[in-house]
Structure formats: C-alpha cells, structure tokens
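A common beginner's mistake is to predict each chain separately and then try to dock the pieces by hand. The better habit, illustrated here, is to supply every component at once so that their relative placement is modeled jointly.
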Amino acid sequence: MMKLSEMTGIEISKMIKSGEISVKEVLQDTFDRIDKTEKTFNCYVTVDKEYALQQAEKVQKLIDSGDLDDSPLAGVPIAVKDNICVKDKLTTCSSKILYNFKPVYNATVVEKIQKAGMIIIGKTNMDEFAMGSTTETSAFKITKNPWNESKVPGGSSGGSAACIAAKESVIALGSDTGGSIRQPASYCGVTGLKPTYGTVSRYGLVAFASSLDQIGPLGRDALDCAALYEIISGKDEKDATSMEFDKFSFSDIKNYSLKGKKIGVPTSYFGKGLAPDVKQRVLESIEIFKSLGAEVEEFDLDIIKYAVPTYYIIACAEACSNLSRYDGIKYGYSADSKNILDTFIKSRSEGFGLEVKRRIMLGNFVLSSGYYDAYYNKALKAKKLIQDAFFKAFDKYDFLVGPVAPDTAPSIGENLSDPLKMYMADIYTVMINIAGVPALSIPCGVDKGNMPIGLQLIGKPLDEKTILSAAYEFQRNTDFHKQCSPLL
Amino acid sequence: MVITDELVAYLEKLGRIELDDEQRVKTKKDLQDILSYIDTLNELDTDNIEPLSHSFPIFNVFAEDEVKNGDMRDEVLKNAPESQDGCFKVHRTVE
Amino acid sequence: MNYEIVIGLEVHTELSTKRKIFCNCTTQFGGEPNTHVCEICSGMPGTLPVLNKKVVEYAIRTGIATNCDITTNNKFDRKNYFYPDLPKAYQISQLYFPICRNGHIDIIGKDGEEKQVRIHEIHMEEDAGKLIHDDWEDCTLVDYNRCGVPLLEIVSEPDMRSAEEVIDYLTKLRSILQYTGVSDCKMQEGSLRADVNLSVREMGSKEFGTRTEMKNMNSFKAIARAIEYEAQRQIDIIEEGGKVVQETRRWDDANGESYAMRSKEDAQDYKYFPEPDLPPIIIGKEWIESVKNNLPELKDAKKKRYIEQLGLPEYDTGLITDSIHLVRLFEKTSEICKKPKIAANWILGELLMRLNESGKTPEDIDFDDSSLGKIIVMVEEGKISRDTGKKVFKKVFEENVDPEKYVAENNLGLVSDTATLKPVIEDVIAQNEKSVNEYKGGKQQALQYLIGQCMRALRGKAPAQEVQKILKELLDK
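With all components supplied together, the output reads:
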C-alpha cells in the first residue's frame, strides 16, 4: 500500500469512506509525523490533538452513516493559518499583540471545512499579521523550509506551505494579500491557489488589507486544491464583498484539454532580476503546455513596474486602519500604563513587531492629510490601469503563465534587514491581488541548490476552473508535484 | 519625498506607536528607501482615470432590518484585559 | 458696534431601525452595559460590516423631506481615530459621497419673514459607545451598546442668525424626522444632538469671523442659552481687541458658561479613505420614486387633512400636530372609535390635563396606544358613563391598565336592560309619591329629581337616558 504521507487528501478520504482506514488512524499518522519533525520545522503556532480527536469522532460517525459521501475531503486533516478565527482556539496572527486571543466565533471558511468533515489539527505560523514574505516576522518562531533548514519557507503563509511539504498535514488554508499563498507554495514545492477576490468569504479572516485579502487552499496537487476551493467558496451574507457566482465543482477540472487553448506569457515577467534557473524551469514548463496542445504567445505587461508601489500604498493604508483596533482595551496584549494614551502607545509599541510598525507608519503617511491624493488616490488609479491591462490580456488569452517569484527561497535572515529588497521580490504576485483575478502556483522543478521553483498560472476573474484544469493536466503529465524534500 | 525626523515622529504619533532610537534611525532610512521607490509611480499617467477602490462592480449588498442577536456580553468580554460591572475597564479618560 | 451672529449646525440623529447599521444587534436604548453587543460592533478581529437597508431608505426619506438631491453613487469611508468608545478605531461614515446634498428647510427668520436654511449634506454613519466615569475608582468603564446604532448627520450651511432661528430650524427638523418615521428624536436619550458652529462679524461684513464649535448639545433650552453666551463671549473678545480662537468648547448648562475643551490631540488627522469592506450603494430613480411614494404624511399635509376632511378646528389641529406622539395617539384612537372629533377632545382635554398634572410631555406617554380608543368606544356605546370613562383613563395613564378588563373587574359597567332597571325604578316611584304627583301636575323639575333618585338607587351604573325613558313610560302610563 502507498504511504499515507504520499497520498493526496482526495485519495485519503476515499480510503476512509471505503473503511480501509479510520479517521483516527489518519490523524495518528499525521501526529506521528508532527512529533517527529515539528521541532525542526516549526510549522505550527498551535497543534491541538485533543480538539482534532473530538472532531474525528463526530466525523467518523457521519462518514459511517453516509452523510459525508458527497464531501471529497471528509476525514482529511487540515492545518489552518493562524489569522483565521477558530472559535475558542488561539488565533494569534503570529503577533504578540494577540498572544492570548481566542475568538468567540468561527470564520465562515472554518464552518465550511468542518461541515465538510475536515479535521482541524492546528494553526500554522505566519509572518506577523501576514506582513512579510519569509515567515520570519512571526513573533513566536521561525519556520524552516522543509527542503533545507537554513532556508525560509516563504510567506506569509509559510507555516501552511511548510506543513504540507514536511508532511505534517495533508492540506492547509492560507491567505494571500500579495502572494502569501503562492510564494510559500513555490518555495516549498506545493500547490497553492489565490482565488478571485470575493469568491471565498473573508468573515473571520483577521484583516490585513481588506480589498486584497483572500483565503485559499494549499495542497499536494491541483485536484486537492480544487476540492478544497469547492468547499470554501461561495457567497456569504456576512461578507458584503463576496460575490454570487456559479457553483464551482472540482471534478469539472478533469474534463479539460489544453488543445487549442491560448496561453499568454508576459515578457515583463522575464526581465532582469529573474534567477536563471527559475527562468529556465518556467520556460521548460511552457514547452510542456505547448506539447499538450496549447498555443503560446508573448505579450507586454509593462505596467508591472508600477505594481509594487501601488500594492504597498494600498495594502499599508488599509492595514494601518485595520490594525488600529489593537489598543490594549478589548483583547490581546495590554501593557502596564499610566493613562489611556499610554495604554494605546505602550500596548501597540510592545505588541507589534518592527515590520508591522513600519507598514503602519507607511500607511499613515499615504493617508495623512496633504498626501492622500498624491499617494493613496494615485494608487487607486494605478489599480484601475493594472486591472485594465489584465482584462485586455484576457481578451486574447485563456490564461497567463509566468514565474511566481524571482528566485527560490532565500536563507534565513537574508532579506529581513532590507525591506525594500523584500518588497521588490513580490513583483510577480502583487499584481494579481491588485487586479482581483485568480492565480495558482504549482511546482515545476528545482534549482541547482535543489530548492523548489513555482510556476504561476493566472486566470480570468471567476475562472478558477481553467487554471486548475490546466494545472491538473500539467500534473498528470509531470511529477514535479510529487518530488519531496531530501530531508524527509 | 524626503523623510524628516519630524515626519517620523508625526507618523509614530498618528499610529500610536513609539520606536526606540535604534528603530527610529533604521525606520527613517527604510521609509526613505521605500518612498523613493514608491515615487516612481509618479511616472505613470493617471489623468482622467477613475480611482478603483473595489475590484469588481458589486453593489447594493444589504441586510434586512431584523434583530437576530441576543445577549452575548460574556463572550464579548471574555478576552478583555480588564473588565468591571459588565464593562471594559480603562484608565479614566479626560473630559 | 453692531454685530451679526452666524450659526451653522451639525445635527446627529439616531435612526429608529430595529437592527444596528452593520450587525444584527438591537438598537434599543438602555439595557445592561454590553448586552446589545456582538463580535461585529465590538470590533473583534476578522469581523465585517453588512449595511442595514432600512438606514439607506431612512436617509433617502430625510433627503426628500428636506429638499435634497439624492446621490446616485454612494460610498462609505473610514474616519480613523483612537478613542476607547470606538472599538474598531475607525468610524464608518461618508466623507466623499454623502447620500444627500443641497437641500433646505424653511424657517421663520428674525424679521418674521420665511427664510431658507440650506442643508449642505446629510450622511450616514455609526454611533460610538458610551464612557462611564467611575470617580470612586478613578477609572472609565466602556459600554458598547450604542456602538453601531445608525446615525444621520445633517449639516446645515451657516445660514442662521439668532438663537430663535436655530430653535425654529431644530423644531422644523425634528418634526420632519419624526413625521417621516426616521427618528424618535428623544433628546434626553441622545437620539438628537447638535454641534453648534458659531462666529460673529460686524453687521454688513461679508467675511466670516473665526468660529468655535460646541459639541453634543441635547436640549433646545441649553442650545439657546449657549448661543447667547458664546456670541457675547466672542463679541467681548473682539471689543477688547482680542482674537477669537478656533476651538471646540463645552457648554456647561448648570453654570451657564462654556469653556475650551482640552484638545485630545493637536490637529486631528482622520485619514479618511473608502471603506473596502462595503460595496458602493447605487440609488436609482426608481428607488427614490418608491421612497417618495411611500413617504409618511408630513406635518403640513396632516394639518390640512385634519381640518378639511376630519373637520377639526384649526387650533386643535395645531396642538395635536405639534407632537408626533399626540398625532400617533390621535390616529390610533380615531381608528378605533371612528370619531376623530371626540378623540381630539379627549386628547386635548383629559390627556393634556394628566400630562400637565404629572409634569410630563407627550413623548413620555407610555400607556398602550389602543386604550384611549377603547375607553371612548365604551362611553359612546353607553357601556360606561363619561365620568367613569375619565376615571378609567386616569388609571390607564398612571398604570397602563387594560381599560376593558379594568371596567369589568371593578364592576364599573352601566346596566341598561329594562328587566334589571324596571323594578328599581318602580321602587323609586313607590317611595316618592309627592314628587310623582308634582310631575303629574305638570312640574317638570320633579322629573329631574326622580331621575336623580333612580340614579342614586342604581349607584350611577345605568345610562341616564335609558333611566329617563323607562321612568317616563311608567309615569305616563
């Protein structure tokens, strides 16, 4: 029999439903792996075995009675990023300011995965409030890349990507504001989807930048991600920005042919700064799409050079407002203080890390009187132009392909000292959030140092189906997604 | 845009945060680097472009005027660092 | 030198919706602290607002009633500031695209002529919580019950020139808000509060002087006093060669003076930006038309109808329509008893007397609104006497008893069936031979005496008309 750790969520769920294995046995296998490697990789802020076993008992009954026959991932363990609220369970955003915070309600996605019979095993480490690209800004621990302990797992959903790569979970939820699912997926050799803005409810996702944040799946392959996306997506009356759209069905992605499909390759994604190995693997992947019958054409997406400035203006502006509620009064860290102003300043100064403070200050700057038009409003106009550029491309192409990140995972400590360098590395991912469109990261090989490389597939709004289908076809014909870390 | 010490101090105040001296020096430099880069956005011609605050044209999303919540006081106060008499407790605010 | 006072108002009014503006909590006033609060209005991480549609409808109603243009493309913005009564540290409001603009309300000006006070804008926003200061422990307790109660902020142009004009404007505005059903305007509960912006200038000058702002005033009398005081204070400063400082001042009504508030922060920088969590609201012509068509009857139209269709005297009509609470009671009562004139008489007679006696105003009326109608029906149908009706009403007014139950339980109903009345009346005839003979001799007064005797024997529990009828029948036999 195949080892559980090599199986996808869908395969495991099938085994559970057929009675070959119990939910508890699957959990135990996952816990064994966590016990073995978590000390090394630090994927989780919290692992809650007792809670997982409680859920498993209920879910086993529902599976036995056939109530979860239609749920493709019933009984499958899932890790949840620590900025997604789980009722009565620590939800820290990897920040000292929420070190003891236990939400009094469940995020909509949590309700949905639990209803689908998935078992939450823990909350994953992340960059503090999802601000960062390495998971090093976590206030609690540094997550290591399961392919190489001296490297970062990427971020901000570093824990969610690493726990899959380390086989410490089968599947995970992350959030993506400017690449926070796709980039760590790329660095850790797993598959990750940033859905169309408005397709997955943000209710219960602790906000970083409200107009850009989306929750999405990370998994072993495109099919698992599609199944989880089916479960978590849909209009939610608690999130006014969520959309009505035709129900997505994961099994639809199996009936797709790349023959005659038009793929656009933005030349601007291959400019200077792109590591040669990454470029090479991505170009090879494009050849694979060609060999599967797709037509490939290059086009200009020059507006990319304005993506990072636009992104940081919008994201920091919204963040400085969203993070103002952490004031030491209602929840979380509260510093000893002499007066009310002191409560605010000390709680926030001691509770937030430097990267968060820097972004709060930047956000305050672009919104402050006298600068609003020159920065914030300018960025909203640039946003329009960036979205227009994508829409124009989608008039011609079924989807777009390019790299996820300019290079593979950097060493721990390498980027943290130079924020601008770190921000500029987000160039290929932030544009997608600004435009609101969906994008997927799939493994497409490794570099000379044996670190994974990700390929980005960018789709039309609400057309997750096309990029997931294309990824599924790609993965049926390749085995990059099955390669695993030499450390395991 | 040139970042001055005064501006850094003002931004700290606006965000209700206080940096130590070392952080302040580094932050001033970092903000300067970042803003100089951000200023490249000025090259982009945005004349006659409508600012886009919401990515997709969703509008008129409403809830009906119905009360659905009961008393949740215990839950709301559960995470409070300090509470008293069913209220959050803070230092006396000046009136 | 002669000075002119220039006043503009920012009025905040809490809307009479059931639900808060962005969450499912009740808007009810009072309640134990933090019992009308959920994860959304207490600003828990991860929560999102969803707009109550009724708030938009109420805003449109107010806009129509104040002659405003209704904005087609509406957005909400965040107003960011730190304060313990604001759990998210931002208030969701409207800065860039307020829902109503360019309206006006007609008032009677200083010179007795009608004049317009222009409305600059009306926008929707959420209320903040309440801070309770504990002197004993030297701390502040925070209650979020009021957080998220929907507000309209109605901003006038600086078009008022005296305290009288301001009071007239506020009275008109309150009447509009109440008649449209948008707000109760209960001032003591803070559901109507005004910020007064005031400056003075030399009579005839075109330039505005430096203004001060007095915040959160919630009594007409206090506003009038505060205006007189503040205008004189500014004039005195100028007369002495000084300069008025632009500042926020607090009016201390008990001591009859205002003082500068310690500024929370030097310059407020609210960092407004579009609220990303709420999609835009597009208000098309059809929506506006449908609100217009369903607009409740406003004061002037009501007055006209009462006079022309119900035949009420103009004076009575004026008294009733001055208070929405009297209007509501009047309409409910008329609906039940079908006799508007009689309903009006009871309200202007018995009710106003009881209110006066108890030092209350119409908005304090707390008895069931169908009670008065039920009393009138009983009186008019002869089930109880008018005097009993008044007594029952007193009980209703004081204790909110159910009038029908009260009459039954205390056996106050009149007996009107002949079978019961006849033997009693026959008894009275037998015992008053002298009067009977006088009556038969043509002395009409004797009949009155006999009726009185009958009523006494019946302890007042029979309709006088019925008694007289039976008595005459028996005597004339």
